[in-house]
Amino acid sequence: MSILRSRCWLVPVALLLLSGGCYTYKPPEAVLEGTVFDEANRKASRRRLEGIKVLTLRLAQRIAEENNQSFLATYHAVNAARMRYYQSLGAYAPEITAGTGVGQTLEWNNHLVNPMPHTPARNFRFDSTTNVTASYLIFDGLARELNVLIQKREIEREKAVRMRVSCMVRQAVAYAFDDMQLAARLGEIAQQNREFQLKLHGIVEPEAQRNLRPEDEVLNFQVLAGYADASRIAAVYQLEVSDFALAQLLGLPEGRLPGPPELPPADTRIRPLPFSMEATIDLALSNNPQMHIMQQTLKIAEYNKFKSYSSYAPTVTAHARFSYNVMSSRYRDYMYSHGSQDTPSFEYGIQANYLIFNGLSRYNRMREMQAMYAMAQYGMAETYLQLVNDVRAACANYQNHARQARVYRDLLAAARRQRDLVYDRYLKREASVDRIDKVQTYYIDTEVRYATEINLLNKALAQIEAILMVELFPED
To answer: pLDDT tens-digit profile of 19-42?
Structure first.
């Protein structure tokens, strides 16, 4: 009992170490880990959008960065890299181990023939050993130093990966947001077209009953109204799909946007890019996370190459050991006797080791790291070329859709004016049904093309912002 009382202090110390060493973080909400979809999911979604009446693009992107599960996971990836860095620093500390052991040996010398004098028939021995060993690595060819540099670069690479996930999430949010706006606009266009066809149908049907119009004109507007309704249904479907995609990116457990947040209409402003092509490329090379990832990858490969050289250096280690052995023996033969001894000892020294030959493993490892460094150099060069191409292609894409949008914007007013003039002539029986159908088709097609080009223009802007990691046109 005295031994237990003397060691009871180990329990609170162990608990303190465990609590201090635990990794604390806020886990995902329970609704995201469950298998039951119920009102809790809807409440969680409403809570994240609480107080928001109009959900703008920038606000949606900020909400995504706070709640997107893929982006939140990158925070812990950075922390894991930081812990590996701290582990590499531990190589500079001495290694101290303590050990203790107890045991008993029972021996019987049976069937002895002409035994030596005083040979015991039985030997009961009890041993107790306690030791403390310390070692310190003095030199290992700078392998420790290079490993610390590698792990430090790993932290920076994980931070760059986190930036890349951030820009991917922001771009995906912009795409889903723009698709919702486009689907809503296409639904409005289809509904307007349907109302126009039904309006003509209501005008022509009474006239056809009085034999003032042919029956096929009545059926014409009825069929076209049905086609317009089918287009509206398709737009509603696309709106729902984009809604689901945006909800996932925002981390909404319900899986869709709850009411009452509404999306504003698409931004129809056609603005020139604020930077020249050379300045845009320089900004991309400075900010783009993929460039940061490759820069860190290149440095890690370089340090690994140098680290492979350290295997040709000797390793020098200092060591010390203190041990305390206790032995107690009991003998029984012609007489009963016992003995015991305490044996404390202490030793220290320095040991150097040098690997002379291991089947060229060292040499081939060095060549492997040299090849990996060369591969990283070419990867860096390819990333540079790809980034320049991405910037030029994205800017050209934006300029193309800007020009197309201007054309359809100017055509839209003319197409509407043309449709209205032919509509008045048709009511006066001065234009054929084919003519009114054609100009209405021109007008609807122009509206759809203009809305589509605005959608593609805004997506091109989101693509450029994702490459540059800047907001080119912050919200007013």
So the answer is: 556 788 888 877 777 777 888 888
pTM for this one?
A: 0.86
3-state SS track over the chain: CHHHHHCCCHHHHHHHHHHHHCCCCCCCCHHHHCCCCCHHHHHHHHHHCCCCCECCHHHHHHHHHHHCHHHHHHHHHHHHHHHHHHHHHHHHCCEEEEEEEEEEEEEECCCCCCCCCCCCCEEEEEEEEEEEEEEEEEECCCHHHHHHHHHHHHHHHHHHHHHHHHHHHHHHHHHHHHHHHHHHHHHHHHHHHHHHHHHHHHHHHHHHHCCCCCHHHHHHHHHHHHHHHHHHHHHHHHHHHHHHHHHHHHCCCCCCCCCCCECCCCCCCCCCCCCCHHHHHHHHHHHCHHHHHHHHHHHHHHHHHHHHHHHHCCEEEEEEEEEEEEEEEEEECCCEEEEEEEEEEEEEEEEEECCCCCCCHHHHHHHHHHHHHHHHHHHHHHHHHHHHHHHHHHHHHHHHHHHHHHHHHHHHHHHHHHHHHHHHHHHCCCCCHHHHHHHHHHHHHHHHHHHHHHHHHHHHHHHHHHHHCCCCCCCC
pLDDT digits (tens, 9 = 90+) for 300-317: 999 999 999 999 999 999
Cα–Cα distance measured from residue 273 to residue 15, given in angstroms and rounded to the nearest whole number? 60
Encoded tokens for 160: 């760059």
State the pLDDT at residue 119.
62
What burial letters (b/e) apply to 264-284, b meaning 16+ CB within 10 Å? eebbeebeebebeeeebbebb
